[in-house]
Amino acid sequence: MASMPPAWGVQYTLSLPSEDAARSAAAELSGMGHRLTAMRVHDHFRFVPSSFWYGRPSMDPELEGWWQVFSLAIYSGYERMALEPFFRSERIRVAGVARSHAGFQQGCNEGHAATLEGVFPRDGLVHEQAGADVALPSPLPEDPARPPAGPPWKCSEVGEPAAVVQAVVAVAERLYGSAEDAPDAVGWLLDEEFAFGEPYGSTGKFLGDLADAVAHQGTCTDTTVEAVPFLVELVCEDSVAPGSRLVLLGDLLRLAASGPAAEVSLADRITALGAAWEESAAEYLTRRAIDNELPRLLSRWEDESDAVRFALAALTALCGSRDQRALSGLAALPAPASSSRADVVSLMAALLSDGREGSVPALDRLASWSPRVAEKAASPNVDLQRLGLAILPDLVLEDVASGIMAEPDLP
Description:
The chain is an alpha+beta fold.
């Protein structure tokens, strides 16, 4: 007889504006079957004499005086992957609890139930239901059926790692001459230590290091702004393998969407604090730098592959450009009706047309088969047009990934 899979736990963290709001939210979570629920003033360790954080300034001063609720829910009887659709609905439900008490869900983490219960901090514990599990529906919900993908893109090889590194370094030398004259994100390519270092085992690893140098962990900085012309030069450089050019174009997509993506992820927090969203200067300037390079990228439209045109149209939408070449070019892309690609193209067309009304039906269709989109759209505080911009890079890159032929890792 097969053994039962280990119980799985999820710890949710909510931020609430007052002690009363936190107490009410904690009671509601306990009523949903959560095993342990605690509430503490935000940054409570700052008020504990034995703590390293005692007396130190708050790491999040906007939440000074707020309260946090920590709640552990246990789910038994199924493997973790089978629970994912239900977990998604639970995250939406818990976020709704936070909003109903004028707060927001700050995050969640998960793991084996026994581990999470053993390390759960009991300071401020207000509800404990020993052995309680959250009731699961039978049968468990399943993810919606995904429409068929569009026709395969023509494969674009990323190139052997040594050849791609050589091409990228040659471009850096042509643009900057030496490491001293290059932006911080590029200088390492021209450094002697890099030149005589260990060779890369895969092109993907090299391109990943390059992307991280430009925007560490995806965060835009002044260095990112300075590196945009270099990335665009690589996208336009024929000596860089076609698949690698497409990967670099994907980096530009993510950078252009960094502002909207942050706004969507923080929408509930912004609303709870009664604040207005302010894009960081680096995010704004990065997108403007990409926008300034768009004419050069689009001038190559007729010579590019369909996969690159697909990505270029998305980049044009993300930069807020109304370029008619990109908009009209969407109709020529291989995106048959009732395919997932057709839904992504519809979203691009709406964004390129500045049609807020057109974005809504496009997002509805995407949410009908993409759980990730549906979860983000569940908050009433999320602006749908900004959501369209935020999710576009992942939708595009997921689609074009099938057209990028990776090289085998070197032994």
